[in-house]
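All the exercises in this workshop are built on plain-text protein records. A learned vocabulary of local backbone shapes supplies the integers on the structure line. Once this layout is familiar, the rest of the handout is easier to follow. An example says more than a description, so a record of this kind follows:
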Amino acid sequence: MLRMRKYRDTFPQTNRRGGWRIVVAACFVAVAAFGSIASGSPSIWSPSSLPAVLSALAVRGGETGLNLFFTILSFALSVLPFTALFLAWVMPGYRTQLRIPIRSLILFGLGAAMCVLHLRLGWNYGERYQGEEFLEACVVYNSAATAILLVLLVCNLRFPSVGSCLAFQAALFAWFGYCAFPWLGETL
């Protein structure tokens, strides 16, 4: 019995019954991706992030003329591929991983660099089609999301836990789904 306790204490904070956390995180990512494409065209409150738009196009295929029920259903289904990608990314080490995985840190660094590049290269198109107010809102959204992700990263480095690791990864995918790469240019 003593030996079993010693073994159990070598893995602090492994979570055997915390399945609700992954459901909440997946719903958070889905709501962020849905919020990005909810208006149907880029706006300040719905910036039409490129990953969410591509996910929606994969499901909906650009169909128009549907009644209200099928329009809402198609929008809801359009976030499923993005949410499934999040779950596939997180699930391998979900219950035992205390620290943020290197692949997520690399994705964060590349995402931040590519987002800055995307905004810089698409600034003229965005200014012409969406307006300067839209671009300023996107810069504020992306700056706030990056700051939140950095705070979550520092929290996980100081106090590693399954919850803080999952919170970072959910916030990362929510950022990608909502505003990381806003649609700049003509609408579809």
The CA atoms of residues 21 and 163 lie 8 Å apart. The longest helix spans residues 132-158. The mean pLDDT is 84.
